[in-house]
Amino acid sequence: MLEGKQNVQTLLKVEVVKDLSRILRINIRVCTAAGTIYVHQLSTVFLDILNIYQLYSEQIINACIQQGPIATRVNLYKTMRAVKSDILDLFIAFTEVCKDSATDRELFMTSFMPSIVPQVLTDFHTSPPNARDAKVLTFFTTSIVVLKELMAPHISNIMDAVFEKTLEMISTNMLDYPEHRMEFFKFLHEANQHCFHSLFNIPSHFQKLVVDSIVWAFKHTERNISETGLEILLALLENLAVNPAVAQPFYVSFLVPLIHDVLGVMTDRLHKSGFKLHASILKHLFHSIQAGQVVEEMLEN
After folding, report:
1. How far apart are CA 147 and CA 102, in angstroms?
2. How much of the chain exceeds pLDDT 70, in percent?
3. How far is the C-alpha of 151 from the C-alpha of 144, rounded, in Å?
4. With contact defined as beta carbons under 8 Å apart, do 151 and 81 qualify?
5. What pLDDT, on the 0 to 100 scale, is given for residue 178?
6. Which of 49, 130, 236, 278 lies 20 to 30 Å from 214 when distance is taken between CA atoms?
């Protein structure tokens, strides 16, 4: 890193990039084994790690602009992507070891997250699809699971940078970007579970995208994805039941279309495995109407 500060080209040599990857993987193992005491090492290397992430992000994006998507398969840029992935793995590993201590969670949020979030989100948003790493979604999912409501202030920025870009990648067909596909819906599931109010304090445009993506998920022919979509929807409806202020606008916009969509997959013979969840969702929707949680004027709409 000292040589790189003197001459940045040093950090762009394939053998140096490979060395960095190996060093990062050693750090990941040490972090997992040592636990939160690893914070001393992370504090020492943190700025260097972020600088490397930014440098390699810029190199990969510029290469894709000049050479097209095939640039991500060139050995040098492929190795740079591996280093970026290792950095994300290190952040994920440290997030996970903080789960048992409120003090460590607070330390991670105040000392590291303010620098990690903008760097990672900017990279994901500006990179071409082939250069976007699904581990960005994994990192934010892990962060929400471990840090819970502490992540609420970041939800809006995450949605703004990641949501539409990921949907563009996975909604054109049912096959491309399988890792992004699964991690995207895991992120939605955990955001709904732990940061519900923040998820529905986002602009209405994003709220519709959230619902549309859930519907798209449970219509998916891949069983894991379709059932994840149904689980997200059921958890969402359960959250709405105890949040009437959010529930009423939601029902105005989405109640009738959701009933149509659920009945559609329930009767199309392609989603038999989700029958129990289909029934639970319909039961919840109809019960909400019968219990007076949806007013008559809204049903007429």
Report:
1. 9
2. 98
3. 6
4. no
5. 87
6. 130
- pLDDT bracket for residue 297 (50, 70, 90): low
Cα separation, 5 vs 55, whole angstroms? 12
41 falls in which pLDDT band (50, 70, 90)? Answer: very high
Q: Among candidates 201, 216, 211, 118, which has minimal Cα distance to 170?
A: 216
Q: Whole-angstrom distance between the N-terminal and C-terminal Cα of the chain?
A: 62
Q: Which residues lie below 8 Å from residue 25, measured CB to CB, with a gap of 6+?
A: 86, 89
85-144 residue pLDDT tens: 999 999 999 999 999 889 999 999 999 999 999 999 999 999 999 999 999 999 999 999
Give how far Cα 140 sits from Cα of 116, 120, 158, Å. 11, 10, 8
Residue 70: Cβ within 10 Å count: 11
Q: 157-212: per-residue pLDDT in tens?
A: 998 899 889 988 888 777 788 899 889 999 999 998 898 888 877 777 778 888 88
